[in-house]
Amino acid sequence: MNRWVGIVSLRETAPPTPVHRIALAIDAARNRTSYQLAGQKVSYARMRSALRRLGQDHARHHEWQRYEYCVDLASDFFDGGHPPTGLPAWLTSELQSLLDGGSGTPSTGRRRAQAAPRRTDSRPGHQRRASTRRSLTASPETIHPARPVRSASPETGPRPSPEPVRPYSRAERRLDVHDVVFPALCMPPVSLVGEYGQEIAENVGKAVGGWNAGPEATTWLGLAAEHRSYLFESHHADQVTPHVLGLLDRLGATALDVILLDAYTQWATPRKAGEQSSQHAHRRAVANLALGAWATKHGLVRMGAGEAQQPARSVFEGVARQILGALSLCGEHEIARRLVASVWHDLDNPSSGAGTDSVTLAQTAFQKEGLTYDYNEEGPDHRKVFRAVVRTGTGRTAEGIGQSKKAARAAAAQALLDAYPQVTAAASPGRKATPANLPAASPRPYPQPGNRHRDAVSDLAAMFELGHRTHGLLAQALTHVSWVHENQEAATAARQRDNHLLAHHGSHVVDYLAAHVRVRRALAHGLTPDEDEARILTSSDDDTARLGATLQLTEGLLTSRGESVLNAMATTYGIDHEYTYDVSGPDHLKCYAATISLRDAHGRVHRWTEHLLGTSGKPEAKKATAEALLDILTAPINGVVDDLPASERDLLAFLLRAQLDGISRPTERQRARILARGDLGTDLLTTGDTAAFLAWAERVRPLLGQGDTAVPDALRELYRKVLDDARIGPGSLLRRMAADTGSDAASVVRRNAADAVRRALSSGPQAASVRDVVQDWWRDQAPATGITVRDDMRQEVFRPLPVHLGALDETLTWCGEAAEAAGTRIDVELTVQEGTLHVWLGLGKVDVRTACDDFARLLSHTLPYTDCLVGDDHVLLRLHGRPETDPVCPLVAAGMDAYVSGPLERQRPAGEAADGLVGARDEQLYS
Length: 927
Hints:
Layout: H1 2-11, H2 18-31, E1 34-37, E2 40-43, H3 44-60, H4 64-74, H5 89-99, E3 152-153, E4 157-158, H6 190-193, H7 196-208, H8 215-224, H9 228-233, H10 242-264, H11 273-297, H12 305-309, H13 313-329, H14 333-343, H15 358-365, E5 371-378, E6 385-392, E7 397-402, H16 405-419, H17 421-427, H18 451-463, H19 471-477, H20 481-486, H21 488-493, H22 500-525, H23 541-551, H24 561-573, E8 576-584, E9 591-599, E10 605-610, H25 618-633, H26 635-638, H27 646-662, H28 668-677, H29 682-686, H30 690-704, H31 713-728, H32 733-738, H33 745-762, H34 770-781, E11 787-791, E12 797-798, H35 802-822, E13 826-833, E14 836-843, H36 848-862, E15 866-870, E16 874-880, H37 890-900, E17 918-919
Parallel strand pairs: 11-13
Antiparallel strand pairs: 1-2, 3-4, 5-6, 6-7, 8-9, 9-10, 12-17, 13-14, 14-16, 15-16
């Protein structure tokens, strides 16, 4: 009979017993050590390394949001953790490319030699499966390509590698041309527009010097000339909502921006984007004023009776923009440009206030005929508009408008000068043109830009059928501000400026195109859009980044990111450096090689030369040398120190020693840059990857010298402050959750989670042991919630860190309040295995993920050696006790001491941790 009972019990799975529940949760957590990325299984260790690598690449490109996302995500990939499954498309693509051996984003250094085989004995495997937050002996898997083998003599510096070098391969750029077909627009009702559209079309035609408007444009112009008040009074608001007029206004405003900037760049030569933006804002205000005056003069605005009694100036300006929007909507962008040019005479000229007294010039030019000015004022008292009409004795007239009589008189005088330039030239033949009136000097391409930049310029010109005359502008578009700053002579010779000017111009073009597509689709769907349908969003950086990736612009971008990163690092650590150049080859195929001379804070000097194949110019050689230094500096993290030739090992040892000797008291901004570069293993500590930090320190120790055990106090302080910045600093996850100002339930949960984790860091319970914490919590929670506590710690020893008791107390409190709110009970089970305390909290009838996900993630990110895992019906808290390790080197001790300690304002006395040794007893204290 017993035999049959056993067989039946094997067939029928019994519900887990209390002992089984925590055992199953622990075992499931231990088995979660890999991640499914697009069908490929990747270990958590490789994911952490890849995310840190991508984060550093994005930081070098100043893409700080993506850098922050990668760093936050790397902290989620601890063994047993629950990292998110739905990663953004851009990150999935970059991870796949990097893990497959490609380059997700452009790295600072890309050595141009074939990779040498990686040594397998330099990466010992894990001794046992455990959380990477606790392991001190495991070395993480790395995904970086192995360092190339190079040979060089110490006396003369490194020479070109004898290994075969990968030749330059031209990027394959292709422009896929697609015919964009928009659905037909819905036509405004005839009962609303009537014959008024024809009147507006005729006025536009007169202004632009002739135009035959089609029926579609005529009808939409009739609607565009109406104010929203007219819609309501004509009882057509149910057929055409005011949101339609708002869409036309927004489209017209973006079209006006493009028209103004296109004209401005023909004669202006601003040096900075801020100057161009300021001038554009001023010109836009004046152009709006002129357009509104034109609409007022010709009586083009249809408005309600109440609005017509005392119309505001903004009414006429808004309707004028709606007319521009209607023209753009119907594909008449050139007519819109000619309309603005005819209404505002300063469109293609410098403004009258640019150092020229137009009234004096007009008086001088027409002194024989005589000038008289007549003034009219319009609008309410608080927003008056003045119109000035200037007449000569021979009947010549011109008019101008302004917000004062003086401004209107100046505008009228300038209009008269523009209308009769021959009279002005005859009256003052010797007058020199002011710099503002001189045409802008067209930028020229660089004579020796390097293969990638030259090919990108020629490819883009061919793809968009721009011709050779645009090569200078395309070169400017592919010139980063950092390159201009460090290559002033070459930029000045080519009349080049940084590409922020074109970026400002291009941003308005992109906004106009996006608005055109949005308005066209909305008005093809109907004339009664709601608020959401009428909302026009500006394009995001991700949109333009995808376009840049499609065109492979990064390959041809002239940027000194490598040099800028090197300069920032040298400034932080007090390293002086300068470049010298060697030239080889004939005059038409000159090749430059840059040598950098480094001098650290103690006066030690080291030189390095990087050789490139092909006809490299000075900028490319300088950039390659800077990138090579930064690339060599990443060798300890990549795990390829043993593969480096002697010359590279010497350079790496010099750079590491220079960093250690040059640390002083970096500012918060400098610490952020140190962390973004990953200097001295800081990024490994802040992401909780202590195993990778230990492996890095083991690789670095031989380079610094076996007998050198001194670690500067500045390094210990740097580790502490960098960790404090990551845990509780302005950009930390804790501060971001605390700053969530939303009123929805999720925002309230995030703010409460931030408060709870802050309490765990700053105060903690007064109890001296784990059992005391659980007992105090049970005593407070039992009256409100049914509680079952099972203590299975036995005689295992658990050495808690000072923050662990606070983490345990806040986790129990958080889950207890969730159970109380749901009106259910809570089960607690405790056990210690291999020095780690596991606390299982069962929550029936509670949406555990919604209630606890944010708290668990923040707790795991912020507290050392603490993992909080959320299941469907439970929370598993893992507190990894202070590990017993063999004596470690001072560098390891400095980093690990900073990691296990809490923030600076919350450091307990050293003797207090001794009270936390836990020896379990068999008796059950709770029921």
